[in-house]
Amino acid sequence: MKVEQLSIFLENKTGRLAEVTKAIAGHNINIRALSLADTSDFGILRLIVDRTEEAKALLKEAGFTVGRTTVVAVKVQDIPGGLHHVLTILTEHKINVEYMYAFVQRGGSHATMIFRFDRIDQAIEALRASNIPILDAEEINGRA
Questions:
Q1: How far, in Å, are 10, 22, 26, 29, 127 from residue 2 at the CA level?
Q2: Which of 61, 73, 78, 105 would be 135's cystine partner, CB 3.0–4.6 Å?
């Protein structure tokens, strides 16, 4: 139930983000989720795409520094306190959230949160034990 995410390091200058999207759009690679964090000098673009290996190769070919990270996609109830419930379970198991971001999927009563944990296997185990749904790559890409 782990999902592969690409991390692309970008200079913080006009047009760099468009160069990333150009490199993969021409090959019909679909971006399913993304997060962009920046400093004054550079940014880290985190992407979940439908064809990770191909996107990574294309981005490297285009001159980008690309890393690969394992993350977990969690279905969180779309109600007040839904995220708090998930975070409480993680806190009880002393699992640190290194970062997280959300993305929208069609329909449903849940939000999808992407988490990077310090102890990923223990996080998955704790969430499953509490009946928190975890999505796999196929579900994120709408093929489940």
A1: 25, 27, 27, 20, 13
A2: 73
